[in-house]
Amino acid sequence: LFFLCLPVSANAQETPANRVQHFIDKILNEKFGDRFGLNQSGQFGVLSKRLINLIKIAECDCEKANNEESRPLPWVDADMFFDRWDTPTACSVKTTTPVAGGLSISMDCIWGKNKDHQPGSKMQVLVKLVKDGVHWNIDNVIHGQQEDGASTKTDLIQRVTQAGNQSTDPAVCKKAFGVN
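User: That's the sequence. What structure does it adopt?
Assistant: Structure tokens below.
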């Protein structure tokens, strides 16, 4: 019985669901200065190469646009990930399903107290993963069923791409990261 109480080894096999859950748990509590778009805490280690490149372009262009405008602009953070300025309180993995080109992980997210959403409000999030070397990495996020009747018209790739086109000359950042 003693062995049942031991913590899981750091060498334990990491599953795609565990990688996604860890990333989500982290961004639900992120501070703006350590948002996942900046990779200050190594969040890029869980994201696909395609998504990382788009985020770098978006952060670069957001910085340029922020210097041009007097109003706040969207940055690559938890708000953009969930397409909500009032991010959920918690999310949990429900299923992992093989799909063309990778995996899809279904998560249920819920809002608790001290949020602008009603406590108990729910949203389904579908996280698309691709295999990058030995790891499964997040490549896109699509929102599924939402209790409040709201619908998300874009996925994470679209939102990040839009964020990379806010300045008067977005081509500067695209060129800096190898996109024409």
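The beta strands are 90-99, 102-110, 122-132, 135-146.
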